[in-house]
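Review form for a predicted model. The reviewer records the input and the model, then writes brief findings.
Reviewer: anonymous (R2)
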Amino acid sequence: MTLHVERLGAGPPVVFVHGAVLGRVAWDEQRPLADRWTLHLVDRPGYGDSPSVERVDFAVDARLVAGLLAELPDGTHLVGSSYGGVVSLLAAAEAPERVRSLTVVEPPAFGVARDDPVVSRFVADAEGLRADESRDPRAVLAGFLALVGSNLKLPEVLPPDLERGARLLRVERYPWEADVPLAALAAAAFPKFVVSGGHHAAFDAVCDVLERRLGAERAVITGAGHSVQRAGAPFNERLEAFLRSAEGSA
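Model under review:
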């Protein structure tokens, strides 16, 4: 299994790992960063220009991302959003010597905060959504987007990329099954940055735990719901400030 990676720009390398539904196009608002950084925009298996898969699994994706880090120069910045945030947490733990910094944006690593009643309710709702096999792909996707608080607007007829994303939701391993090695990540020397959108208590709960347990820098960037990076300039400016700080401390 391989990853498709679009590379553009010049400067220190930054790997971007997307979440569910859409592939690397989820990072379109970050393309202006290519003026100062070398962007590696990943399509996870099943998405974009990567090969199709029968099942989406964060553990498989994490190994592939760790392999990508091994191919790049020492000191790669890793940025993951949503499901890709869980993948990035695991990949960074697998190859800490290859990571210059780690940024995660609203990762649904609900296992780290499962005792929180808001998180427990979210997990139950998400599992119930998938259990209803009578729903057509658009209804499943609409329910998922409403649950996570995405600002993505669906057309009446799904185009192929969204139809594909809806299908992958049905075969995605639940991200809260991930055993995130918090102690190992906290001990790793690279800086950590945790970002939320300030729109959903369940995601805030996870991000608060990660901030505390990892000794991470923390930001709340509002206006784009779960698709925090689609806030554009406010997100890019805050991310770039963190990346520059990590470069300076290396």
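Findings: The longest strand covers residues 99-105.
Further findings: Strands lie at 4-9, 13-17, 38-43, 76-81, 99-105, 192-196, 217-220.
Recommendation: see findings above.
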